[in-house]
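S1.2 Input.
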Amino acid sequence: MMEGQNGVRWAVMAGVGLCALASLAGAHREGPRFSERSLAGTWSYVGNSGLLVPPAAPEPTPASTVGMFSFDGQGGCSAHGQVNVLGVTVETETLACSYSVQPDGTGVAEATFTNAPVTDPFPFSFVIADAGRELYLMNTQYVVGTLIAKRR
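S1.3 Output.
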């Protein structure tokens, strides 16, 4: 009889162990949880070989940019940088900027800029990458191209 009880006890303990492992595996697959706080701080960015598209330019026009973003960790942001359009470089900074982050690390931002070809906000989609050290951004309306930002 004792052997039978030990076998049941061992089976129960093995089942509990397997459930614990399954729970850990599920938590690992889910990945890190992100929020606005995940972006808090200053980031350097570069955008190469993008195209300004109408209405930002009369026809697709090559452009590139470099600068810095600052995120306050609560949905507010600012940017300062330079934009080169057809060999002419202008300095630009944000007049207004906001962002939001989903738990999976994707998000959206919206910014209006000085010296911009349009006065409407520039919309962006982004994803947090490299364990929170990089940010990949794409303008979703006025520019065909991407930005890569790295935490400073």
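S1.4 Remarks. The chain is about 20% helix and 50% strand.
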